[in-house]
Amino acid sequence: MTKRIDIPSLRKRIWASYRSLRPLFFEMLRIQTFLRGSVYELSTRCGKPSCICQRGQRHRRWVLSESLGGRTRLRVVPHSEIERWQRWSGSYRNFRRRRAEFVKITRRILEDLDTIERGQRRSPE
Fold it and tell me: Which residues contact residue 11 at a Cβ distance below 8 angstroms, ignoring those fewer than 6 apart?
């Protein structure tokens, strides 16, 4: 016995999902500048026996960490650009988060459309 498909409910869900894409698009297209990667403060030791970092006070610098071709690359952020690069990398994360949400909603719409197709398909007799 096959389960009856509730096509009107699926149509409503598709339209609701479709409407949720508009604000998502607006936010994705509003973001103008972004920088791939994360900006953070890195503290390191240099290894020189007489350096102050050997006594606990580490060298600090701001870096941009990004993955390129499976390898992590660190770039030193100019001190005057720290806030801007942080803002740009935050915009990139927001864009990627919204893009993932867009993909999730689109997949749900396609699954519902496939279900409707299966429910409405008839074989010639």
Answer: 116
